[in-house]
Model the fold of this input.
Amino acid sequence: MQEKKRGTLAVLTGGGDCPGLNAVIRAVVKTALHHGFQIYGISNGFHGLICNDMKLMSLSDVSGILPRGGTILGTTNRDNPFHYAAGEDEKGNVIYEDRRDVVVRNLKDHGIDCLIVIGGDGSLKIAHDLHRFCDVNVVGVPKTIDNDLPCTERTFGFDTAMAMATEALDRLHTTAESHHRVMVLEVMGRYAGWIALHSGIAGGADVILIPEIPYDLDAVIRKIHQRQQNGKKFSIITVAEGAKPIGGQLTIARMVKESFEPIRLGGIGEKLAREIEERTGIESRCTVLGYLQRGGSPTAYDRVLSTRYGAAAVEACLDEEYNVMVSLQANAIVRVPIAQAASKPHQVPVDSDIVRTGRELGISFGDEKPED
Ligand SMILES: Nc1ncnc2c1ncn2[C@@H]1O[C@H](COP(=O)(O)OP(=O)(O)O)[C@@H](O)[C@H]1O
Ligand SMILES: O=P(O)(O)OC[C@H]1O[C@](O)(COP(=O)(O)O)[C@@H](O)[C@@H]1O
Ligand SMILES: [Mg+2]
Done:
């Protein structure tokens, strides 16, 4: 017997793509249909909401997508309905418009009771603004390879990015050892060092440089020399794209002028490798892992986490508990106010046990004094 229609939901994916997005979409659609909701899939994040680009989803739309990377809905890390880049003036300056009314109208026209936003800090901030300024019901799902969201112990996608970076470090080890080189691996993470820290520990890096601990190049050089004195002719360094020297600046790869937060980080790895080679005379090379961290199939851990998050987001709608983000705490999925989830990004605590463990193992974080 057909269950009575319970209500109408919509789902979108926002920000940089991330392994596990399709697994969340699948879980959202399957759970929603299971409970008698109808569900719209919105194309290309908030862009689709502004352009009224959405369609009803069925089980066949999500068939076979569990292990697939990317997002079948498409995404963007530029569009913000409150600050929409509508074009350029004759001088080439971007013209921004507030499109919140269009978004509210489009949601209303489709009878959408709640919008499920799968995104990182930027997308969840927009979701929070839609709730507080436009009275739209939202439920957030914490997405990002960067793991930089507050109020959750894990974002989905991080485990896959960490696994990719760890494999890269394993591969760099063998070539570094053969050529007696210093190998630098630059990983993503924006202003947080989670990917660098965890992959650095898992991949046996000798130096880990993260945004939370500004580094002193002298300390890095001392570590490389110390290894040489101990007969280790190669060294491996993991550097987060947001790492910077003490008193120095971030290294910026490009500015995306239509983006609300236009800075795109990158380039610190190459800079570091050049400086190390100049200072030590040891051949040094940099590898930038880049979008390989975001592309491709999610790990089993991320598939499970994504599935739990997707189902939990619909369960929140079922309970009519809106304006929350589903979150992982003590291995249980709980709900936290979206206002908290959209607050300050979560960085690595410099006194965390994993940093301490790294130090005890002799890993340099680039901040050791000569006598340490
Ligand atoms: N601090 C902010 N306040 C408001 N909007 C933001 C903020 N940061 C980012 N955004 C918007 O959110 C979108 C997605 O953010 P981004 O950081 O790229 O992805 P994510 O959702 O993964 O964090 C951006 O294109 C931008 O329009
Ligand atoms: O896709 P772009 O614009 O190059 O953005 C790169 C940024 O996106 C990320 O890959 C993921 O960040 P978000 O989860 O905030 O989208 C960052 O690690 C990186 O700094
Ligand atoms: Mg972000």
Remarks:
- The radius of gyration is 22 Å.
- The mean pLDDT is 96.
- The chain has eleven helices and 15 strands.
- The pocket of magnesium ion (ligand 3) is lined by residues 15, 120-122 (CB under 6 Å).
